Amino acid sequence: MQLIILAAGKSKRFGRPKQLEEIYNNNTIIDYNMKNAAKCQINDVIIVTNKELEDKMKEKYSKKAKLYTSNFKNKTIGNLYTLYSVLDKINGDFIVINADDYYEKSVFEKAKKFLEKRNENIAVVAYKLKNVLSTNGPVNRGIIIKNNKCSINIKETIGIVNSNNIIKDNNENILDKNTLVNMGFYIFKEPIKKEIKEYVEKAIKNKEYLKDELRLTEFISSVKNEYKVRVIKTSAKWTGITFEEDKKDAYNFFKNKC
Q1: CATH number of the domain that 25 lies in?
Q2: Strand partners, 142
Q3: Residue 71 has what pLDDT?
Q4: pTM above 0.90, yes or no
Q5: Beta strands 139-148; 151-163: pairing state
Q6: Using one digit for the tens of pLDDT, what is the confidence trace for 45-67?
Q7: What residues have CB less than 8 Å from 84, skipping those under 6 apart?
């Protein structure tokens, strides 16, 4: 069982590399996630970064994880491609997470239990929308649409804000505060590697990345008829950093925890 941390983003809205941003007690969000994973005996960690951050990331994390670089013509083309770039380094079942979202220990426990006891091939951890919004600007979230018990679509929804307790997307659609959303915590059985490889290579051949990023959410939605997908609900606390102003909220979050 391996933990794959996707850390190849450019952090444009934050203004500097979030992957290296120390939040509290000299710890980054990546540090906190690795600590929670280790508490669940998940110690085999791969971090995927970009070419620009390669040296600094190795300096920061090389003693804690295996570091690899995702580089497609010097640009990031989505989290699915970032994962694809290290598929040959993955052995066995694996968990995939974002570098700038914090996940509680209980979430890793749920993931481990799924891999040990469930028959489905894919799982997505679902948070309530009201618990995963920034107070400092619009964010993008993957809204989970369940077709049946083990079949889902994940709809990327752009520009979500909470204004006066009314949650809207960038098209002014009002969203239910209890809507389940994906926060970048994915759980895969090993056979899915083959499907990811084929999906990405077809997309590259067809130059689909020129139209939009290659996203894990779209991959999962595309294979929902072939593979069972489990939605794992959680009430765990979340924090993350999208904007510079989010750092203060994250600092207070970890200060209160510690």
Answers
A1: 3.90.550.10
A2: 156, 182
A3: 75
A4: yes
A5: antiparallel
A6: 999 999 999 999 999 999 999 99
A7: 196, 197, 200, 214
| Rounded average pLDDT over 193-206 | 93
Number of domains within the chain: 1
Per DSSP, the residues of the chain read -EEEEEE----TTTSS-GGG---BTTB-HHHHHHHHHHHTT---EEEEEEGGGHHHHHHHHTTTSEEEEE-BTTB---HHHHHHTTGGG--SSEEEEESSEE--HHHHHHHHHHHHH---SEEEEEEEGGGS--SSS-EEEEEEEEEETTEEEEEEEEEEEEETTEEE-TT--EE-TT-EEEEEEEEE-TTHHHHHHHHHHHHHHTTGGGTS---HHHHHHHTTTTS-EEEEE-----EE-SSTTHHHHHHHHHHHH-
Q: And the tokens for 219?
A: 């991959």
Contact 60, 78 (CB under 8 A): no
Torsion of CA 161, 166, 172, 175, to 10 degrees: 90
* Boundaries of domain holding 125: 2-257
Q: How many residues does the chain have?
A: 258
Token output for 11: 């952090």
The Cα–Cα gap between 218 and 220 comes to 5
Residue type at 153 in one-letter notation: N
